What we know:
- By secondary structure, the chain is α/β, with parallel strands linked by helices.
- It folds into two domains: 129 residues, Spore Coat Polysaccharide Biosynthesis Protein SpsA, Chain A; 121 residues, Spore Coat Polysaccharide Biosynthesis Protein SpsA, Chain A (Alpha-Beta Complex), CATH 3.90.550.
- It contains ten helices and 13 strands.
- The structure holds 1-O-phosphono-alpha-D-glucopyranose (G1P).
- The site of 1-O-phosphono-alpha-D-glucopyranose (G1P) has 11 residues, from β11 and α8.
Amino acid sequence: MKAIIPAAGLGTRFLPSTKCTPKEMLPVLDKPVIQYVVEEALEPDGVDGAIIVTSPGKPELLSYFQPDRSLESLLRERGKAGYADAVAEAGDLPVDFRYQYEPRGLGHAIRSAADATAGESFLVLLGDYVVPKRSICTAMLEVSKAHGGASVVAVAPCAPEDVSRYGVVAGERAGSLPGFENVADEEPGAVWRISGLVEKPAPEDAPSNLYIVGRYLLSPLVMDLLADQEPGKGGEIQLTDAMARSLDRENMYAVVVDPLSGYDTGTPSGWMATNALMAAADERFAEDFWAAIDERGGLTRS
Ligand code: G1P
């Protein structure tokens, strides 16, 4: 099974930094954001490659995932084996690329990788959300397996006024992940059968407050339906709309996840907070991170 990672956007919210550096290449601690997403995608058993959908204007993504043996040997000669290993690790990940030649929406980006999925189910991981524990895709695969290979999305509850930022699901409780039998309907581990999906509804039109967090396991039918999907919200070809059409012919499930299991790196402030929180939680960085802050009198909200 392949995992598709759309990464063709302009990175508008991070301009001017993203004028020359794709937003996916911005670092979180010592690695670019996209590497966390690729590693998360490759975590579950059965996923054997990641397909990054990018635009021709972002060659840095391709170079990053190429091996660089001369840099590796230079580092080894200089006694920097740890850095050499890190360079090798990035270059040896099973990553392939497809281009989205025009910015026509998420559904169009996913469809641009159709040939890579070989008619099988596939994962989609949106790159603005980093899940260091890599747990969500495995949970979705478990739910899918329990329901005959059905499509599954990860959802989380949001404040009613925030629904218009997301894809929102309608449905009914249909069970739980093993070990989560007693959780309430909107708590992590609850499983829903989806009866409808709507992209960025007005709060008064939202069928629930469960939003799609950006992790999908989709059937080949959804990929097929994307081929003739009409533009929807914002004039873009929406993945949500093709998923909604698939409901006429197939079941689809949602698994509730804790939104705090991931970090939002899609805005400058989200990205900054992600770096601070992950540095504080990582033993390789925590001590020096706090020392650098303490040196300036600590961090208090003014
Ligand atoms: C996309 C999807 C939306 C989903 C969201 C998660 O929207 O279209 O359904 O809820 O990602 O981040 P975007 O954020 O690209 O507008």
